Automatic annotation (TrEMBL):
Coiled coil: none
Alphabetical UniProt keywords: Transcription, Transcription regulation
InterPro entries per the UniProt record, alphabetical: Class_I_gatase-like (IPR029062), DJ-1/PfpI (IPR002818), Homeodomain-like_sf (IPR009057), HTH_AraC (IPR018060), INH-QAR (IPR052158)
SUPFAM superfamilies documented for this protein: Class I glutamine amidotransferase-like, Homeodomain-like
Pfam family, one: HTH_18
Tagged with keyword Cytoplasm: no
Name this polypeptide is given: GlxA family transcriptional regulator
Domain HTH araC/xylS-type: 214-312
PROSITE patterns: HTH_ARAC_FAMILY_2
Length: 319
């Protein structure tokens, strides 16, 4: 197996975790399977850079003398807001040469500025998706997933999603066993699929201010298979159904029914991805009752059936 060079671009005000998260994943894979990865870091002139959190990172070399990489990784951070034009020029000239082009967080902004995302689907941190779409209309910006892969280009939502993307790349390059070992060492999930939303149902909705409503939100999350009708939830909150529905919408920004739908879909997706349970068992555990009801929910929300979703996003074991 040929060694893959991973070149990480550094610049002032880079976000440190966007760098160190993926680097730890690739370095962990190299320890498990020596000769797999060669990791290099480089800044424009080879000088140390100061991250947005105040840490100083010392690169291996200058970008001008950096080896041609298999994987070119561009992190994000405050430094992407007003990047050095020399960096954008370097990416424009060298990005197309990489076998794999990867960005973390607002590193996608640098790739877009260099014209490397034109005509491609991409994502970035949720707070910058609208701006990326406005500034670069040739880029098909998807604000929902934690990472997106379009051909040899992969973009991620930022921070911990850079670790998810790096683990997915390691699994592709070296196999599931190595990726699993690295994930266990880092105490993270082996694989959050790229299509997973940047926000869970609990984060996408606002947290209710009043304690009874917060308790109901938690109850829904922990008991997706229970009776989650408005009457039952209202009784748990000790409110009338009408008062409960109005208060829930006012404090969370969504109706009880929509919140329950999203929690159940999220729960079913996790079971399809992470377990070997049958569709009928999962439909009951997730509150759908029948496989047909779950199938209709999946088709409506995701455009695919539960069986096809599992085929796509639950990888076969690597022996």
């Amino acid at each position: 197996m040929a060694q893959r060079t991973v070149l990480v671009v550094l610049f002032d005000d880079v976000q440190s975790l966007d760098v160190t998260g993926p680097v730890e994943v690739f370095a962990g894979a190299e320890k498990c399977a020596p000769g797999t990865y060669r990791i290099r870091t480089a800044s424009l002139d080879g000088a140390p850079v100061r991250t947005s959190s105040g840490l100083t990172l010392v690169p291996d070399q200058a970008l001008t003398g950096a080896p041609e990489p298999h994987t070119l990784l561009v992190p994000g951070g405050q430094g992407t807001r007003s990047p050095d034009p020399r960096l954008t020029d370097w990416l424009r000239g060298h990005g197309p040469r990489a076998r794999r082009l990867v960005s973390v967080c607002t590193g996608a902004v640098l790739l877009a500025a260099a014209g490397l995302l034109d005509g491609r689907r991409a994502t970035t941190h949720w707070a910058y998706c609208d701006k990326l779409a406005r500034d670069h209309p040739a880029v098909d910006v998807d604000p929902d997933p934690i990472y997106v892969r379009d051909g040899h280009v992969a973009t991620s939502a930022g921070v911990t999603s850079g670790i998810d993307l790096a683990l997915a790349l390691v699994e592709e390059d070296v196999g599931r066993d190595v990726a699993l070992t690295v994930a266990r060492h880092l105490v993270v999930f082996l694989r959050r699929p790229g299509n997973q939303a940047q926000f869970s149902a609990q984060l996408a909705a606002q947290t209710a201010c009043r304690e009874p409503l917060r308790e109901v939100q938690q109850w829904i999350t922990e008991h997706p298979g229970a009776d989650l009708g408005v009457e039952s939830l209202a009784a748990r909150a000790r409110l009338s159904p009408r008062h409960f529905a109005r208060a829930f919408l006012a404090e969370t920004g969504t109706t009880p029914g929509r919140y329950v739908d999203r929690v159940r879909l999220e729960h079913a997706r996790r079971l399809l991805e992470d377990t070997a349970d049958g569709v009928e068992e999962i439909s009951r555990a997730s509150g759908y009752g029948t496989p047909e009801a779950m199938r209709r929910a999946f088709v409506k929300a995701l455009g695919t059936s539960p069986a096809e979703y599992r085929r796509r996003f639950r990888p076969a074991p690597v022996h």
